Amino acid sequence: MNNRTPVPAVNADQYKVHNIVLDSDANGIAVSPGGKHFYFTTDNLVVRDTATFEILANIEVGNGPLDIVVSPDGIRAYVGNGGGKSVSVVDTAENRVLATVPLQTDPRGMASSADGAHLYACLFFSSAIAVKDTTTNNARSIQVSRGPIGIDVTPDGARIYVSSYNNSTVEVIDTATDEILKEIPVGKQPMRVIISPDGTRAYVCNRASDSISVIDTVKDQVLTTIPVQRMPYDIATSPDGARLYVVESGNSTVTVIDTATNRVRTTIPVPGQPGYIAVSPDGTRVFVTVGTNREGVDQPYIAVIEWLTSDAHPSI
Q: Does the model's pTM come out above 0.90?
């Protein structure tokens, strides 16, 4: 049963967008648990202040850095090196690489357990999930269906949900046994997966179906499918779980969905080629990496969507 309270409609005067112009394309993006810093990957890992947008550090990591995960305690950042078959472990206090953990193949989507004990990385080209012990940096792998690309962990750490891009499914895996518990059919070319803060829902971007699959994590079945406009790529939730933010890379927008009604509330333009998304811990800001396109956007940037009123966003 969905007991969430519907959120109000959003008007353009209830938010503003700050554009941070970049010299090169950004890929993954993440916000520190305390909300003071945000991290994104270009050729390196860049650290900026969330209040002033000032650059605090530029850290050399592995080849082709993509996804970023910040540990729940904020003391480590993990960077998946998409061209380097490795994960860089970064000390966030000293802004330096502590270790580079080798993997079978290049990592794509990544997620951390809520206790920070394990890091999970999708190994797209070897159809496996790498499971890294964050204390020892030792890693093992779990074989899954072809093309794992999106992953998230339930709040209790008991299960992971993995999207299979080539198989159009989401696999549910027991983290204690590494057993695949269920394979759930979703839309075509599923990309990113996000678990709701209360752990009762999993949301999946279906890139080729232009939709979001809503999975009941108790029954592990699709409850409903939410149509969006074009090529959903990445997804995030507000901290209270009231909203979904969906990057539509084919439509140059961020779509805002009410999780109580599973309906689109508004779309926010982000001209160019939007890619990755992250939300601040207080829910007041949404960070989106945006690349160039053929429609006149000739410089990459980060769009920071700032909510201005509590009516626009319940978390404020």
A: yes
